[in-house]
Design goal:
Helices cover about 35% and strands about 25% of the residues. The chain is built from 20 helices and 30 strands. Helix 5 runs parallel beside helix 6. The N terminus is likely disordered.
Length: about 625
């Protein structure tokens, strides 16, 4: 075969591959009142030989497994002429089809009754569809385009909100499986408000807010103006908006009392589900999730960890970079609401206090690095399990761990280099996000070295605070902005936090023959007086200081009446019998951050300038 013939054959084969028809889903809701959808997937140009179809076990933006196959049933396969095809279930969420024609239809019933950022929820008011939780797919055909037809919209008075491409009427499409799975879809009588933002390249990006709630349109329009202000503040960090794939970004908001609160980022949209009655009256509180998830349209959806590219829907997705992808986003999401004027600096000190306490007063941060905390997400990120864990003593959330690390780096860049964390984020954006080059942790270190022009600083910071578990000097760093880090309850006796239910056992079961005392219903924390005394989850505290303990509050009141160093004799019981121990009280280590001026001090001009440069609006 000569070169010309080979080239012609290659082009013909390639053209045939690209011409393969999209996989098609027809989605109907004949039984929405009972939370069911009827779905038919059509596979044209089906590959010869046995093929498998499956439900996902993980979801875009989540890192643990979720076993979506449990809510799929009545799974059947047909040829294009409606004749039945034998189908064998080979795993809990995998089916095999061996003998089939060139077109395969797979029908099934989906049960969906959990409205959040991961699962699906269907009732007479809406169909809230996170794609991995709703749609069977074909391994090996991930590159195929996908189309959806949503039926029954007129029946229920629903519209469609999604980042899927609208192909006309009730048909929507995705370029491949990855984009499909990243495209949550809300079918409901939502209210909508939109606006445009001029990007730095001269292109106009459209931002849509779609809200399924019991609010009037005027409330949604007013809230959209608040979201618009937040969007511009985030744009100022990077100097530009992402170039959204179809020049549009959609906020999918659902607000209802029985929802499970959640926020989940996607490439050109975000799914924000809130427990509550309405948007009206809760606008500022709701903005926190909006700010976090929208920041992800840069940091995680385009500034993309190599460990998550591409996302695998068959198992948990572990990433060592979540301290940056989620944690730095956590820092910015809250801080930018101060810059945008929705929170005062005084209010923000409570958020800062939470970040600092998470790394200075948690055993997880004391013994494990941000990288290790990130890896634990496969168990902690809404992972499914019923057995108790020791997370309280081995895990600090990468959201807060990374957020506290971002805070320290921001303050250090400002004080040591006359730079900001914004400068660093823009450098990472230009190095890896805008060109869409998946990054590793060494890549993040290179960007820090580049922006500071100091390889030694970058290497030291990553060695000590990213791979290691040393802690920055938050007290001195915060002081530069006129913020005081101090003990929240100096001189107050403390036994450690305990969680309890009177007369209840480990999982809330009623305890027979128990009318007094309290059950320690969560792990005691390493280093606390109760932990040192040998008390732990499941123990029943009966007496303290020789007196019966009626409940946990009575024990807390006793501790409050004591001094640091006092000893409390405790009688408790567990499965091994009744025991005696001694709890030696210590000072409460919890920290707080306050404004210097609220503590009677006067800000220096340098502190005033530092704080203003840090927390003032950057929108020009």
């Amino acid at each position: 075969m000569n070169k010309l013939t080979s080239l012609v054959l290659f082009l013909l084969v390639s053209a045939g591959a690209f011409a393969q028809k999209p996989i098609f889903y027809e989605v109907s809701f004949p039984n929405a009142a009972h939370h069911e959808a009827q779905i038919v997937m059509t596979i044209p140009d089906a590959p010869a030989g046995p093929i498998k179809v499956r439900m996902s076990r993980s979801s875009a933006g989540r890192y643990a497994t979720h076993e979506f196959g449990k809510n799929v049933y009545n799974v059947k396969a047909f040829n294009v002429d409606s004749s039945a095809i034998e189908m064998k279930q080979v795993e809990g969420d995998v089916w095999e089809i061996r003998d089939h024609g060139p077109v395969i239809k797979v029908s099934y019933t989906l049960y969906a009754n959990w409205t959040d950022g991961t699962y699906a929820g269907i009732d007479l008011s809406h169909a809230h569809l996170n794609m991995p939780a709703a749609f069977i797919w074909v391994p090996g055909l991930e590159k195929r385009a996908v189309k959806f037809e949503f039926n029954d919209l007129d029946k229920y008075g629903w519209k469609v909100a999604t980042q899927l491409v609208h192909d006309g009427a009730t048909v929507y499409s995705a370029r491949d499986l990855q984009y499909m799975m990243d495209s949550p879809t809300e079918l409901s009588a939502f209210k909508e408000s939109d606006w445009t933002v001029l990007n730095t390249d001269g292109k106009t990006e459209k931002i849509r807010l779609t809200t399924h709630s019991d609010d009037d349109q005027s409330v949604i329009d007013g809230y959209a103006k608040m979201v618009q202000k937040m969007v511009l503040e985030e744009k100022a960090v990077y100097g530009e908006l992402p170039a959204y794939d179809y020049d549009e970004y959609t906020f999918l908001q659902d607000v209802y009392p029985t929802n499970s609160g959640d926020g989940m980022e996607h490439r050109n949209s975000t799914c924000i589900v809130t427990t509550g009655d309405k948007v009206g009256g809760n606008e500022v509180r709701l903005l926190s999730t909006f700010a976090h998830e929208y920041f992800h349209s840069w940091n995680v959806k385009r500034i993309r960890p190599k460990s998550l590219e591409p996302f695998n829907f068959e198992h948990a997705d572990m990433s060592s970079e979540l301290w940056f992808a989620e944690g730095f986003t956590q820092y910015y999401g809250e801080m930018l609401l101060v810059r945008a004027g929705f929170h005062t600096v005084g209010e923000y000190t409570r958020t800062l206090g939470g970040l600092v306490n998470s790394v200075l007063n948690s055993p997880g941060a004391a013994h494990y690095s941000p990288v290790q905390a990130s890896n634990y997400a496969v168990f902690a990120d809404a992972g499914v399990s019923i057995d108790p864990t020791n997370q309280a003593n081995i895990f600090t959330s990468y959201y807060f761990y990374g957020g506290a690390t971002a805070l320290a780096l921001d303050l250090r860049l400002r004080s040591e280099f006359n730079l900001t964390l914004d400068d660093y984020m823009r450098q990472v954006w230009l190095d890896y996000g805008k060109p869409y080059i998946p990054y590793t942790i060494p890549d993040l270190e290179k960007s820090l070295a580049k922006v500071t022009k100091n390889k030694v600083f970058a290497a030291d910071f990553f060695k000590r605070y990213i791979y290691g578990f040393e802690k920055n000097n938050y007290k001195d760093l915060l002081a530069k902005a006129g913020l005081i880090l101090r003990k929240a309850q100096p001189g107050k006796a403390w036994a450690g936090s305990q969680f309890s239910q009177q007369g209840r056992g480990r999982n809330g079961q009623a305890r027979a023959n128990a009318t007094a005392g309290f059950v320690i219903s969560a792990n005691t924390i390493i280093g606390t007086p109760m932990y040192k005394a040998g008390l732990d989850v499941g123990d029943v505290v009966l007496k303290a200081d020789g007196k019966d303990v009626a409940d946990a509050q009575a024990f807390a009141d006793l501790v409050t009446s004591k001094n640091i160093g006092d000893k409390i004799a405790v009688t408790y019981k567990n499965r091994s019998g009744e025991h005696q121990t001694t709890v030696t009280l210590e000072e409460n280590p919890t920290l707080e951050i306050v404004l210097a001026e609220s503590d009677g001090k006067t800000l220096t001009p340098e502190q005033t300038t530092f704080r203003n440069n840090w927390l003032s609006s950057k929108v020009k």
